[in-house]
Structures are given as structure tokens and as C-alpha cells.
């Protein structure tokens, strides 16, 4: 009998180690105390003169047979309008600190060529400049976010650009604008004062940049009806000293935001970053660990800012983030073209949940970069065009734009790989102006589903609907042959039980629920 029992036991143990574990979570979604509004500007994007983002991305040749306004590609515009992109950052990035805006205005045939030294050494014909970018923003119904040149520009050059854009009084600059076809000012609000000034933007120390910021910012004037929201160049990842120095040296009334740049590198090494499509579970695990590091970065930079700015006047602007992999084989290494898989979707959704949960301080963010570069939303090949899994995450999460955040209290199950562990589940929730609650879940664990149950005090709801993004493999992508391999599907595994919300979250999935 003992022998049989022990055989039975070891067979059971063997079976349970082969079967997926049952992970369950009990949570409270606090509908009684809505917290800070989740600014829609957390859902911003970035378009640099880099690779095929602008040229052969947004801005195509006259001869390409696609719907266009001037040379702006309208299928891209339509797709981005659908996800309500709130702002678009331009012209860089590193390019921004070598860009001289006067080269990009006036008759296109007369515009000078320059070498794009940062990105592939290619010739830039300046055919896409200020007027073209602002026309793109008008078509997208989005706020422009312009990054001015501190690294190789002058205070006067930046001051004149702002005047050209925003003044309605007669001057040489506004006459020039009118001569170039635009009488009314554009009233650009978001204004970056340099980019990565610790690196490609001039190799400065934090102390030197803080003084430069103050100089440039004084002369970037607020014109009638066009107060600028100035974003100071901020830290790279964990450079907490940069944030400390900026907060100490620049008065909180003199900057709207302070930026932070952080990229998720799958291997964690800038040398061999890892492939966008050929990775194993171990590399997926490291990618997600590196992605979750954003929580620590945002928390620690915010804590430093709190010391100098307890009322949280200055926004933390994460104006470059995303996954950065090796380029697709055979493509120009300077063009940063990478594919986009289910893993990218999970990175995007996890990062957006982190930003939502820090909505009191993080009030602007820009994924790098919109089209054909890094973690893109849209990939193009000639006339062909596809929406990436990351695009679908922004589509799912748009329900959080400008809604009030709800706190979610829960303990996440762990996703283990060898001896290492990370939190398997991340969540954010919000309530919109119509009283509709949205909850976004990411189950990072590729092997186990999670059973979730929550009480939602303070919210009256009767009905739950949902949408999901997932796929058979983490490496699955949308390709030009199969552009809809991954797409949003409706999700039925959520219900009301008593007053609780009960959900079964599939492995490696992004789920967004709506409670009415
Ligand atoms: O997004 C690509 C580059 O990454 C940007 O030009 C730069 O700001 C950052 O280092």
C-alpha cells in the first residue's frame, strides 16, 4: 500500500510540475478615491529625421502611389488619428541638436542639403521642415512637440524659431512666415530645450546644462495666446545626479517638465542588443525585467523631484522610451529598423501601466519612434503598410486618456526563470468623465494563466466587456504577407460574480476591460 501511495504521489508531483500552475490574485480597485488624471500626453509619439521615419515614412516621394496630401502619407495619418495620438515630438533626438530650422523653410528647391551625421551619414534635403511638420500635426489633430537645438545652435536661433512659430505681431520673422505661406501663428506649446545634452546634445555636465537651459529658456518667449511648456533635457536612465542638479539649479516655475530617457535593451547590453524576432524565453525574461526597471526609475526620479517640488508642478517627461533591438538583418545599421512582436506589445502595455500609475508626476511621454524606427507603430515597405502589435496596445489603452486613475491594490504572482523572479502581472485602472471604468492588465508570464478577482468599492456597474491582444508565440509578428496576424480580439473571460469582478487572464496577454 505504501509503495502504491508513494508511486501515486510521485506521479502526481511529476504531473503538477508539467501542468501550468494555477495563479490567483485577489485585488481591490478603489473607485472611492480617484487619483491624479492620466494625462493623454503620456501617449505621445516621436518622429526623428532618422532612417525611414520621416523620409519614406511620413514623407514620401511624389511618385509613390499612395494617398497623399502634398507628400504626407495619408494611410499613416488615418491609422494614427484612430488612436488619438496626443502629441508628436520632432525633429530629434540627436538630430535635433544639429538641425538648423532656417534650412527647412522657403521654396524646397532652394533648401540646402546637409549630412545626417547621427543616422547613417545620409544626405538630408530639408524638404520636410517646419511648415511640413506642422501640416502633419494639423492632419493628425495632434499637438506638436518641437525640440530646439542647444548643442550646436544659438540662443538667437532658438528664440527666432519660437517667434516664427508663435508670434502674431509684425516682425521680420512673422513676415517671413507669411511669405512662406502661413499668416497665422501656430501656437506651438510643447518646447524641448535641447536633447540628451549629456551625450549627443553636447556632452555637457548637469551643472553646465542647467545654466545653458536657463539662458535658452529665457529667450524662448511666451507670445500672445502661446505660452510655452518648456521641457528641460533630463537624465539618461539612472543618472539621478542629473535630476538632482536640474531641480536644485532651475526654479520650478522656469520649466514645465524635466525629461528622462530610458530604453529597454533585451540583453541589457548596447553591444549585442538581441534580435527583434529570434529570442528564447530566457531573453524574453531579461527583456521584461529590463522593462519593469522603468518603475524604479520613475519612482526614484520622482522622489528627487518631490524634494524640490512637493506640489508636483514640474512634469517628469519620459520623452524617449521603448524596446531597442538589433536592426533587421540586411538593413542599414544607422536606420534602426526593427520588427515588432507580441513581446513589444507586452513591453508597451507594461510601460504604459507604469506611467498611468505615476500620473501625478509623469505627464508626458513619447515612444520611440512612430514609423519604421525602433518600437514603431507602423511599418512600411513601398506602398505596403502594416500596424504593429505595439500600435494595437495604444489603441486598447486610449480609453485611459485624461481619465482619473483608480488605485489597484494586489500582490502579483511571480514569473520565474531559473533563480530569477519578476512580477507576472501589472495593472492600471481609470474612471472617465462618463463614469465608465477601464482596467488594463498585462500577464507577462508566457506559461501560466492568472485567475483574478477584485472588489470595486465606489463604482456602480452591471456589465463588463473586454478586448485582448495575444498570440500563440511571443515571437509572432505582423508581416507584409500577414499584416493582421496579431490584432485586437474580443475577450469573454470576465464576469460579475456577486459584486466582484472575476477574470481569467491568458498567459502572455494584454487585456483591457470596460465596466459600465
Ligand atoms: O531614438 C533614437 C535616439 O536615441 C535619439 O536620437 C536619441 O535622443 C537617443 O539616444
Query: For the report, how would you describe the main beta sheet?
Result: 10 strands, mixed
Distance between the termini: 57 Å
Helix content: 25-40%
Low-confidence stretches: 1-17
Overall shape: globular
Q: How does the helix and strand content classify structurally?
A: alpha/beta
Ligand inventory? alpha-L-arabinofuranose
Mean pLDDT: 95
Could you tell me the strand content as a percent range?
25-35%
Radius of gyration, whole Å: 24 Å
Helical stretch tally:
10
Question: What is the secondary structure topology, with strand pairs?
Answer:
Elements: H1 2-18, E1 23-30, E2 44-46, E3 68-69, E4 72-73, H2 74-82, E5 87-90, E6 114-116, E7 122-124, H3 130-140, E8 143-148, H4 155-166, H5 172-179, E9 190-193, H6 206-219, E10 229-236, H7 240-249, E11 257-264, H8 281-308, E12 315-323, H9 342-357, E13 362-368, E14 378-381, E15 384-387, H10 389-397, E16 404-409, E17 414-417, E18 420-423, E19 425-431, E20 437-443, E21 450-455, E22 464-469, E23 489-491, E24 494-497, E25 500-505, E26 509-515
Parallel strand pairs: 1-21, 2-5, 2-13, 5-8, 8-9, 9-10, 10-11, 11-12, 12-13
Antiparallel strand pairs: 1-16, 3-4, 6-7, 14-15, 16-19, 17-18, 19-20, 20-26, 21-25, 22-23, 22-26, 24-25
Helix pairs in contact: 4-5, 6-7, 7-8, 8-9, 9-10
Bound molecules: alpha-L-arabinofuranose.
